Automatic annotation (TrEMBL):
GO molecular function: phosphatidylglycerophosphatase activity
Origin superkingdom: Eukaryota
This protein's name: Xyloglucan endotransglucosylase/hydrolase 15
InterPro entries attached to this UniProt entry: PGP_Pase (IPR027706)
Length: 88
């Protein structure tokens, strides 16, 4: 089976690229995989301040973080914070 066939067969069930990237970060840049900020929710984050301090990106866990479980729709109260994050 070719790689592209495998990816098509697996589809959304397994995020192979995400797993490979996470393993690469864990083994090569472990400090990037440690939480740097803990907040009640993302509405408490000052995105401009994070950027000013040198942060280049953030990682969100979708379920119970920015959506309700098993949903693809952003939880509406978080929209302004997500928009600020994208702007920064």
């Amino acid at each position: 089976m070719r790689w592209t066939d495998f990816r098509a067969a697996v589809g959304q069930r397994i995020n192979v690229e995400g797993i490979v990237f996470s393993a690469r970060v864990f083994f090569n840049d472990r400090h990037l995989s440690l939480p740097h900020v803990a907040v009640r929710d993302i509405r408490c984050i000052d995105w401009y301040e994070l950027h000013r301090r040198g942060f280049k990106g953030v990682v969100f866990d979708k379920d119970n973080t920015i959506t309700v479980p098993h949903s693809l729709t952003l939880w509406p109260p978080l929209r302004p914070s997500i928009d600020k994050c994208k702007d920064v």
